[in-house]
Amino acid sequence: MIDLVCGARPNFMKVDPVLRGLGGRIAARLVHTGQHYDHAMSQSFFDDLGLPRPDVNLEVGSASITVQTAMVMQRYEESLTDPLPDLVVVVGDVNSTLACALVAVRHGIPVAHVEAGLRSGDRTMPEEINRLLTDQITDLLLLTSSEARRNLLREGRPGEAMVMVGNPMIDTLMRLMPAARALALDPPGQGAGLVTLHRPSNVDTPGRLRSILDSLGRMNGMRFVFPVHPRTRRNISSWGLEPSVPSNVVLTDPMPYLEFTAREDRAAVVITDSGGVQEETSVLGVPCVTVRPNTERPVTLELGTNALCPDPLDLPDMVERQIGRRPATPPQIPLWDGRAGARIADAIGGFLKCT
Questions:
Q1: Helices 206-218 and 230-238: angle between axes, nearest 10 degrees
Q2: Residue 46 to residues 58, 181, 214: CA-CA distances in angstroms?
Q3: Strand, coil or helix: what is 91?
Q4: Domains along the chain?
Q5: Tag placement on the chain: N or C end, fewer CB within 10 Å?
Q6: 160 vs 123, 141, 148, 166, CA distance in Å?
Q7: pLDDT value at position 221?
Q8: Separation CA 342–CA 194 (nearest Å)
Q9: Which of 145, 168, 177, 173 is nearest to 19 (CA)?
Q10: What element of type H or E holds 345?
Q11: How open is the CA angle 84-355-164, to the nearest 5 degrees?
């Protein structure tokens, strides 16, 4: 038996293809840490994706990085069964990823990391620390793109522990895109911009968040839909920034997966700080502007579908540039083909036979 760990919104789209790829060949216990716990950030995704009810829900909830990581470690350890799982599979770079990997190693359980080797080079980002530390204690490194292998080799990880499997998030995107495209959306719909912001560097400082809102307002010829992360919403409210929200920006609650994907697919441009959104827009051929000085998804920059914008004041110019560079057809990325989940399942099966 293996444990398959998910904790936050980006994890659910990566876990689903792995479960489907396993197809019952290997018994899997689905562990939800509860890092994202409300309906919009968690249960609605289980519903849209058709994920089964978790076998274990640790119900950790919101807390500081340190407290949340410690709580996940404590509760996950308490949930371990006898006999122990043969493998713990973690995905992505959230706090739950590192926490459960650490618990597994302490109990002598091998770890597999889906999306291993991604690096932004920015150690001020909590996700970068989670990625670095998780990969140092991982036994099976499952890679989404070629630069991940170079990063891991540079860090001294053995090549024989790496398997190139592709991007499971794109499996979910491809599987559910027909349902997303069938949705009738309330306006603004086709041609509107879409905004997602959740990283502390953008939303945890009043001046930075106000500057981003001001720049959106300077693009008054375009309307934007902005599904607001709960922390971002709290900050807008507590800092009294509601008057700074421009009239061309529609704030909404976080969206279910299908609705968000439908808006992403129809967007004129997406402004984000999310790694997963950079990947999805690249596959869809939708122009993307990332409000960060770096990215752990450099393939999106190489394709030209994504561009970095460290300074919010440059957003209007960058948006105009990216819209003008929209590709005639979406680019093709090796192994981002909707079959990563099956390759991950095969890699897990091969690893277990060798241990």
A1: 100
A2: 16, 19, 35
A3: strand
A4: 2-167+336-354 (3.40.50.2000), 178-324 (3.40.50.2000)
A5: C
A6: 27, 9, 14, 17
A7: 87
A8: 31
A9: 168
A10: helix 340-354
A11: 105
94, HSE (Cβ side, Cα atoms, 13 Å)? 24
Residue 117 is classified by DSSP as T
CA angle 127, 45, 84 (to 5 degrees): 65
Say which amino acid occupies 32: H
Residues facing residue 54 across a β-bridge:
none
Catalytic pick among 36, 39, 107, 198: 198
The pLDDT tens digits for 213-224 are: 999 999 988 999
pLDDT at 160 over 90: yes
- Under DSSP, is residue 75 helix (H, G, I), strand (E, B) or coil? helix
CA distances from 146 to 14, 164, 200, 339, 352 (A): 18, 8, 28, 17, 24
Contact 40, 227 (CB under 8 A): no
Residue 229 bears catalytic tag: no
pTM, two decimal places: 0.94
Task: Give the CA angle between residues 203, 48, 263 to the nearest 5°.
Answer: 55
pLDDT at 178: 97
The Cα–Cα gap between 206 and 291 comes to 16
Rounded Cα gap, residues 256 and 39, in angstroms: 9
Residue 38, amino acid? D
